[in-house]
Amino acid sequence: MAERTARIVPVLLSGGAGARLWPLSRESYPKQLLRLVGDKTLMQQTALRVCDRTRFAPPLVVANAEHRFVIAEQLRAVGIHDATIVLEPVGRSTAPAAAVAALAALAQDPDAVILLLPVDHLVRDVGAFQRAVDLAMDAAANGLMVLFGIQPTSAATGYGYILAGDEIAPTSEVCEVIGFVEKPDADTARRFVVSNHHLWNSGMFLLPAGVFVGELERLAPDVLAAARDALNSAACDLDFLRLARAPFEGCRSISIDYAVMENTDKSAVVRAEFDWSDVGSWSALWDVSEKDASGNVALGDVIAEDASRCYLHGDGPLVAALGVDNLVVTATADVVLVASRDRDQDVKKLVDRLKSNGHRAATQTQRVHRPWGSYQSLHRGERFQVKCITVNPGGKLSLQKHFHRAEHWVVVNGTALVTRDDDQVLLRENESIFVPLGAIHRLENPGKLPLNIIEVQSGAYLEEDDIVRMDDIYQRQAS
């Protein structure tokens, strides 16, 4: 076992939209932020796998700027207060994100080793995961960049495969990398399942940061240069580090596999023995979820009769299934998806069509998350809109005004402190206040419990861009 001179730096990659799990997962609130399996989100589960500070340094999270406050809150909720959250101005796949992480780690330790972990994957056996990391460290100590390969359990055509070669002494669980196959056809995938040489590519990597940067310099120097410029010109934004937009936006979008791993001679693969799923489709979610005697997964408001092998999720309207087999039926407040589980890889096609049509449901959830809490539109008509607003304890909306609408707030539960021009008013349950058009106002929750209010807007224009901010503790430039 390699002797450690420093802790491994976990790099939590929080990119992607999880479109194949639409409508639960959307760009505005992707699958890693959802409780899909168990009582913690995939983001939280990933962070907790590397929370042992004797083995791992504080994590570095590379994330979409839109999700920064939700990620920070989810990490705090599971006791992780020491993460560094780096914000990408745009998504550019995994190679640029990994390059930024490696450069940041090297700035702290010239011998740094980084562990790249997508935060939307599921690993339940933490002990087996840590053993695989130990095996990878042995190889990394010899200057090798290590992939984690998973023994296939099905002829999956949606995964990439690694062709493993000869064993690397002294262990049979670390092998040379001979090649890669990206998303094979069904016949090829079936051959790979019975082969002892093909492993699923988990998308997790243990990289000596210096070796990785050296290979980037050789194989993808433009990616490294853009990452370095974006990091060198990064700016602190509250508790976040915001990468410079221009150099990062100018970087080509490319995965770490294509940029480096498929072209290097400094790689190895660990035959990992932990359970793994990228939870990349409804079938994958069905596979890892608890089922009833008929093979159904039923979550939320669901009733089923003579149904089998279905994934049924009611998060809004009641889902009632009768005499059906092998279906995905998922109901949210604004979308009902019905699909054959055999076609679940094609859900993204529906999302792409909705995007091309400009449909809001392609990317936005009905409940909109903000750093102070969330809101949801309940009803909308000509010149009026009704919303439910939830403000977290200590949460505070910006000091703002509107040019085109007035608002009436009714407290459902909790305590509200309302600023209205020169006045401050404390409201409790069943109390209300009117905010006229043009009034400078702010809503905040001074209590220890969530505040829920009903907001009735009235006016000629009711969109979110009719907000002029005078002061915002979250330093947002737009709503």
What fraction of residues sit in β-strands?
Answer: 25-35%
Class based on secondary structure composition and strand pairing: alpha+beta
Spatial strand sequence of the major β-sheet: 16-17-18-25-20-23
The domain count comes to 3
- The count of β-strands is 26
CATH topology of the largest domain: Spore Coat Polysaccharide Biosynthesis Protein SpsA, Chain A
CATH-defined architecture of the largest domain: Alpha-Beta Complex
Radius of gyration: 24 Å
Instruction: Give me the number of helical elements.
Output: 11
Summary?
This protein is of the alpha+beta class. The protein has 11 helices and 26 strands. It has helices at 42-49, 68-77, 94-108, 126-140, 186-194, 209-219, 221-232, 245-249, 256-261, 282-288, 347-356, and strands spanning 9-14, 60-64, 84-88, 113-118, 145-150, 160-167, 174-182, 198-208, 235-237, 240-242, 267-272, 297-305, 311-322, 327-331, 336-340, 367-370, 373-381, 384-391, 399-401, 405-413, 416-420, 423-427, 432-435, 441-444, 451-459, 468-471.
